[in-house]
Amino acid sequence: MSMIKPIRSSFFILVTLTFILMLGSSVGGEPTGKSPDYKELGLFRRVMSIVQKNYVKEVADKELIQGAINGMLQSLDPHSSYLTEDQFKELQVETKGEFGGLGIEITLENGILTIVSPIEDTPAFKEGLKPGDKIIKINGESTKNITLLSAVKQMRGPKGSKVTVTIMREGWSKFKDFTITRDVIRVHAVKKELLEPGYPYIRVVNFQENTDTDLSAAIQDLGGEENIKGIILDLRSNPGGLLDQAVQVTNLFIDNGMIVYTDGRAKDQQMERRATTMGKKYKFSVAVLINEGSASASEIVAGALQDYDRALILGSKSFGKASVQTIIPLENGGGLRLTTAYYYTPKGRHIQKKGIEPDVDLKEEVQKQQEDEAEDEPKSSDKKKQKKTKPLRDTKIDMETDLVAKKALEWLKSDVTAKQYKQDHPRPTPDTASNSK
């Protein structure tokens, strides 16, 4: 009998989530469907024999077979891979304990190691790494053909040690090195601020244990439901976290109905998560902020609230990272990390690689503002003088410069519902999955 248990994973350097499921070793035994093509297996044996006889140095059978398995899995997608015994143990450590890291979630995008999002208040965030940055080298070694697990292993290390990553960013003409001091990643999931009476701003940094209760506590601290007219829920650069918490946070704002479901070939990969009638249900207006660094759990929350017209979504299109990886233990102590399903919004929208389109797309305005600010930045010599006195980014939001938050507050104060706003400002209808439920 298989054991299904959602655990935290995907790669945070502290690890965040691609929603991994742990299954018992009974899973993944004999294949179902068509029998293997023995002609193709014969070709594999032939190639392996040629390599063993003619390669420049002797290679063990185990090394060749493991390499072949990993190559097969990596040809499917960036998140499927073979785990050696050491890597399997390492993954279990990642999901249970604390360790030194940078505070970024990474993925492979078209074969290039790419930052999904740096986590606020972590070393990577403080050094200025951004969503979409391409990691070209790690400690001087090229990341070409690197696996996610290998990248994680290279960037993780003891607290206080350093790692240099070479970054290429859109708009740059050349690479830039960032030398970052590792730290134990501890993230405060919820940050809050009262913008003005009746209108709180709450930022969810990631979805970890008790995020839903921390969010409820923040709402109560900022006036409680009786005194709140509308809130800004900021999910920008939130790379995800625990699936259960994404569901529980959404459940605070939805009375009933589907929140998210998965669909895969195997029956046990078809799962539904619905809102419950129990617990607190907030009725005030909600503006949700997203950007290209919002992924997985963030996209589940934003997608569900959008589908039910429960919130207005503002910002730019999210990352598009919503696949289920299943860890299948193997007899040799290793394991398979295999993509087995995708997540869908209540209306059947496929999130993976598509992301959540905001109701109010402000990407161009934000980019224009960033370009203007870059032009106004002091020259490099002046920057060096300012570096010692320049404070780290304040966690408080600047409503004068944050165009997305400013627009969200304007909408909240207008008393126009999300549904009415979308009717008055129609956007192209997104693709809908044919198997919506």
Characteristic terms for this protein:
Pdz3 Domain, disordered N terminus, alpha+beta, 437 residues, 2-enoyl-CoA Hydratase, Chain A, domain 1, disordered C terminus, six-stranded mixed β-sheet
Folded structure, characterized:
By secondary structure, this protein is α+β, with helices and mostly antiparallel strands. Among the domains are: 99-184, Pdz3 Domain (Roll), CATH 2.30.42; 190-320 and 344-424, 2-enoyl-CoA Hydratase, Chain A, domain 1, CATH 3.90.226.10. It has helices at 38-54, 61-74, 85-96, 123-126, 148-155, 211-221, 243-251, 297-307, 363-376, 380-387, 403-414, 418-424, and strands at residues 5-7, 20-22, 81-83, 100-101, 104-109, 112-118, 134-138, 141-142, 162-168, 176-181, 183-184, 190-196, 199-204, 230-234, 257-263, 272-275, 285-290, 312-315, 323-329, 335-344, 360-361. Strands 1, 2, 3, 15, 16, 19 and 20 form a 7-stranded mixed beta sheet that branches. A 6-stranded mixed beta sheet has the order 12-13-14-17-18-21, sandwiched between helices. It has a 4-stranded antiparallel beta sheet with strand order 8-7-9-10, with helices on one face. Strand 12 and strand 13 (199-204) form a beta hairpin. Helix 7 (243-251) runs parallel beside helix 8 (297-307). The chain is globular. It starts with a strand and ends in a 13-residue tail after the last helix.
